[in-house]
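LOG
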Amino acid sequence: MLSGTMTDQHGRSINYLRLSITDRCNLRCLYCRSSCTDLKMLPHDQMLSYEESLELIAVASELNISKVRLTGGEPFIRKNFLHFLEQILQRHPHLDMRLTTNATLLSGKIPALKEIGVQGLNISLDTLNREKFQRITGRDFFLQVRGAIDQCLEHGLRVKINVVALKGVNDDELPDFVRLAERLPLDLRFIEFMPMGEQTVWTPDQLWTASEILREAGAITSLVPVADRDKRKGPARMFSLADGKGRIGVISPLSSHFCGQCNRLRITPDGRLRTCLFSDKEYRLRPILRSPKLGREHLRQVIIRAGKNKPMGHELLAAQGRERSVCRKIMSAIGG
């Protein structure tokens, strides 16, 4: 272990970095962007270059970050993204490299992802109904996403499907989601809808809680809790299905926090380090990366200091209440 291995003030070891490479997305999901009437994208010169991102990943690796997830926006929107991925894994073959994508642009890229060495993908899919998909996302890309999921599985990539749980929107589809997990060897995770961004459309009556989901799913099929050692450590509570190939899980940031086990840092597309999703405290890394006077050691010390001061998010959430957004920025500007 390097002397710079990060442990925060609460004793949590930090070994997971989520790096957003763009704030741009080709969907306009109702819970993210649809309410933003004056949404402004970052100018390209304010986004981290691939070279700057590679430098950040190199420093993170020195600090014993072992898992890196690339997110957006939608990462496949950015030009030369596959080459960037290849550079990361050529330089850091030990990294557990993951991607979060809406899968609308995956056609033709899946064999290359496998060859590069990507282990798995998180794919956003909030409905199994094509018409409802268009209502939720503002785009008619359902067939592309479903086809990409099947292609990933055919090529041996691990697939986790992320479903934003929306009461009154997709809660009627739970039986269909259960059948999908029974039929395919994938992880299907329901994520409680969070109030993100100052213009959030979130209301309390839209909260479909993890406990409700598990109770309703348990009435459809037998759920067997997955032991911690088998669930690859993360915020999801996972359950195998007695008569199925896949698994079902829930992520409950609002109703049952998992802050005590949080091991992650987030870096926004413009190089701002966030230590907690529920905090707007940011550490500006881009000026350090672009300074001719400040080097890698300075960058390293800022990241260590930020990690040391990582807060307990549930305390922040409790202090501000649930009647407003948990942070000012929308998810695509932070890194979903």
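LOG (cont.) second protein
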Amino acid sequence: MKKAFLLIILFLNIQLLTAQYTEIINSKRPGFSESPYSIGTNVYQFETGLFYRSSNNTTSSGIPKSFGGDLFFRYGKFSEKLELNANIAYQKDQFLALDNNSVLQKTNVSGISHLTIGAKYLLYQQKYTDKTKEIRSWKRKLAFDKKRLIPSVGVYAGVNTNFLSSNYKEDGISYKAALLLQNDFSDRLVILTNLIADKITSDFNYYSYIISMTYAISEKWSYFMENQGVFNKRNSPKYNFGIGAAYLYSNDIQLDASLRTNFFDNYSFIYASAGIAWRLDKHKEKLMSKAKYNPLKTKNKKRKKRRRGNIFTRIFKKN
């Protein structure tokens, strides 16, 4: 029972260290950060939810209220290290816009606001010492593995398409790239660090970082804390902080909720979301069957070949 409990904890919102595929769903939600690991080959995963944003920003470019939903689709194919994905969002915003008399008026717009298609690949997978096999020294068994300070590394590349509603269209497509890092400091504690360049080649390009901490408190519950910073040339840096929790309903379903707010701005906002992650698991391990591989049969064939070679050698020597 104890081994099963620790195994489930390891799988909550993090990836297995020895393979991409996990028996239990691992989801990007409810945070914004992303792990360098993929979901495994022949796995279809849907992560969707509703969000609500409320702000006291009174400028003409502000969005006091926003409500919508998003869908993050993930698919593993070709390699355990590779994942293909797509992110789409639909929302309804309430703008403050100037009318003909230069008076601020509330204006509502809605539509598809975001559609990005991309892929990520695991470049380096950190492996840790198995302390359960240490029987000579109790001190070494409990000592911190310094390898955990070196993260697993992945990269992401995507395209921000312009297949959006008219109210959200920009001038052409743009690109997104990210460096994805993951440190497993223990079987329960994971730190994710994302360094992102978004809307590359457009007039709205920006850079950001995301640092997330995920901690499993039981075999069903985990929580996270997250800090995000956004930087561009047009505005001062923006920072926000989020917290949330996830509940493992079954091996293939996870429920979540989160809440975040901003820092260091002359206005404040509240962002709340709730959602679900579900996967269709068609993953199959690549195992060699006994019918295809028989060590004894293979060994006997090699012996026969060697014998035949010796016979032919003798004949040619006689001639």
